[in-house]
Amino acid sequence: MHSERKIDIKAIFVQYLGNKQDRAAMSNAASLVINALIGIGKLILGLYLLSGWFITNAVYYLILCVAKAQVLHQYNVAKRIESPQERVVLEIQVYKRGGILLCILGVSYLLVCLRMYLLGEAFVFKGYIGYLVAAVAFTKLAFGISGTIANRHLKNPLISTLKMINFNDAMVSIVVTQATLLTMEGSPHAINTSACFGMGCSVMFCFIGVRMMLHKKKEPVTEG
């Protein structure tokens, strides 16, 4: 009985953690929960404080969660398809739809940054909370870079789509961090500078999204 339990545990480990693509999907599922909590929290604050800044940020995060959840759902669907050809066709379709979602994210964040620039409205954390926000942002960026490097050999279009969404999330965190740190340093142009940087990132997100939509090459799946 004891040996059978060991075999079962090993089988579960191999099934869910032995595959690099599955590990990448599980880590993205965890980040999805975190982003959903952030989005809901900002929406509640925005409605309570009647803050357009919090509400527009919440809309961005909720769109990001929908995009990531859709890709993760299709990843599970693709795993159950036995035909490699059909699986690749589905993955490419989701990859192109991911480009559309990335463009939507870019446009939504462009509106957030445009509001920052025109109205000078932004919620900036101060004191130790500001440093905590900066630490979280750089942690997101570090995980995004390390995840991209670790999974660079995985040519699965769905994993590539998740990597693009994570890159989007990390860059947005850097914009927030820039605004926080510049304000803490007393810069008079902290909000406008961060808003311009954010708008530049939004244009880049849309450009990446368009490239994904125009993607034609069928990438092979490296792991079943």
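^ that was protein a. below is b, sequence first then the tokens
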Amino acid sequence: MDKAAGYTFILGSILMVVLMLIPYEEANATSLDWDIRLEALMSNWNFVATIWRFELTAAIALAWSSFHFAKENSSWYLVAIAHVIYIVMYGVMLAGYPEARTQEGYNTLFQIALWIFSVANLLWVLGIGLIVSQYSGWLKYVGFITTSILSLTMIGVFFRLLTFEDVYYVMPLVIVVYLLNIIIGAKYVKVLNERRTS
């Protein structure tokens, strides 16, 4: 099960990176009017909902494997809890967005999803930041810089010092952290293989 958790974490992270590179900006862009966003979302619902279902699957995989890792390092609880919160966010979007028929209804669901996203991201990057701090070399420094910027951004949103529009400027860093996830997962599997051969 240890190795299965490692491979699950790697595959879940790869899936997240791939899905985040698929463009569907009109459904998410806060700079557009709500009716344009809603029309874009509904006209492409099958496509967008499929992406979200795969992201939900990846979040479940990452939550499960992170809880498994937490048995050895409690920092993983932050990562695991963050992905459980992501699961709630996808529930709001997949179940709620198709039922939104008014500006107030859509905006309420959209803001709820964004707040859940921000809280989950904060917990996730804090957890990964603590984990990479235990490594050495470039992984430690890249991880520290990336997670610090993301953490400060999410804290800024939480205290209303920044807006959700500002979050989109740091979204490439989210992909970087998922790439760090892949490396961390690979290191975990490597350590397990070394233990079994020694």
